[in-house]
Amino acid sequence: xxxxxxxxxxxxSQQMSKVTNMIREDIKKSHISEGIVVVYSPHTTAGxxxxxxxxxxxxxxxxxxxxxxxxxxxxxxxxxxxxxHAHIKTSFMGASQTLILHDGELVLGIWQDVYFCEFDGPxxxxxxxxxxxx
Length: 134
Known about the structure:
The chain is α+β, with helices and mostly antiparallel strands. It has one domain: Sandwich (Jelly Rolls). The chain contains three helices and eight strands. The strands form two sheets. Strands 1-8-3-5-6 form a five-stranded antiparallel beta sheet, covered by helices on one side. The chain has a three-stranded antiparallel beta sheet with strand order 2-7-4. A hairpin with a 2-residue loop joins β5 (about 95-100) and β6. The relative contact order is 0.39.
C-alpha cells in the first residue's frame, strides 16, 4: 500500500512547517519512481501549500498577509468556536497538493518546499501522503 500517515505537533496558533523531507522518505519506502504524489490534510483548519524555502521571511510574510486578509478576530464572524479565520485560510490554501514524481524525485523548483499550514493551533495533526504509480 502506498498510503503513508504522518503526525505533526504544531506549537503556534498559526505556522507553516516544511514536510518535504517526510514526503521524500515515503517515496523511498514506496520504491515508486514515476507517478503522482498527493499530500492531504483531513482537517478543516490546516492545509498545504508549496512555496519558497530559502528565506524564512517569506513564511512570516505569508502568514502576515493571510492574517491581514482573513483576521483572527472580527465582529462579523458568527461561528461559535471562534476559529472562522482558520477555516477561511485553509480553504484559501487548500487541503491538498499534488506533486509530480519523476526518476524517484519530486519535481520541485530549486527554491520550493511543501509546507503544512496550521491555522488553529497548537494541535496534534495528521496528514496523509498517497503515492500513485504511473
